[in-house]
């Protein structure tokens, strides 16, 4: 069994003494008080060391006995100061370990509360029912998609015909209209008078289908004008 398991299960030497042991907060307060007391002791010893050094300097070789006694006291104070430094380091380590243990305990306690809450939430849930519910939701989504696709498609209502047949019929209609237009066109009559003898007098015209009648009309007019001029002379 690990040390952590022993600590939380009450298997440690300090934890096995029963419920009368100090709480983590009380132990931390005691450790801080001890640290403060030892810090004050350090300051006192440092002051005494400085004082004994001053005494040793004052006597020097004039009073070797007194100077040596002062140096011996300084050594004892320095030894005590070193011991206090070590004790403070141990207490500081113990305090940090206790703080971390207390923090871990609170974290585990809160995690336990959360696990119990999750268990309470999930106790009324059946995984099989959840699977069936998700399957039903998926099926209904598929049905809804099919309905949307059916609604969005263009309705033909039986109006499906062969486009090639329709195009052939349209071409026949266009050809009939074109033939009808050709039958309605009237060609100009042949003029009764002779054409001018000189080709240069022939009026310029373009023998197009639409302009053929106006050109012949102008030729007839010019011929009549020539006959009138000849009669008048």
Summarize the structure.
With 233 residues, this protein is an all-alpha fold. The chain is 73% helix and 0% strand.
Task: Give your account of this protein's structure.
The protein is mainly α and 233 residues long. It has a domain at 24-126: Orthogonal Bundle (Helix Hairpins), CATH 1.10.287.1060. It has 6 helices and no strands. It has helices spanning 3-9, 24-59, 64-122, 127-152, 163-184, 212-232. Helix 2 packs antiparallel against helix 3. The longest helix is centred in the middle third of the chain and has 59 residues, at 64-122. The protein starts with a helix and ends with a helix. Residues 6-17 and 200-213 have low confidence and may be disordered. It comes from Erythrocercus mccallii. Pfam families: Snf7. Belongs to the SNF7 family.
Distance between the termini: 153 Å
Radius of gyration: 63 Å
How is the CATH topology of the domain at 24-126 named? Helix Hairpins
- What overall form do the CA principal axes indicate? elongated
| Major sheet summary line | none
Find the count of extended strands (DSSP E, 2+ residues): 0
Draw up the topology in text.
Blueprint (H helix, E strand, L loop, with lengths): L2 H7 L14 H36 L4 H59 L4 H26 L10 H22 L27 H21 L1
List keywords for this structure.
233 residues; mainly alpha; Helix Hairpins; 6 helices; 73% helix
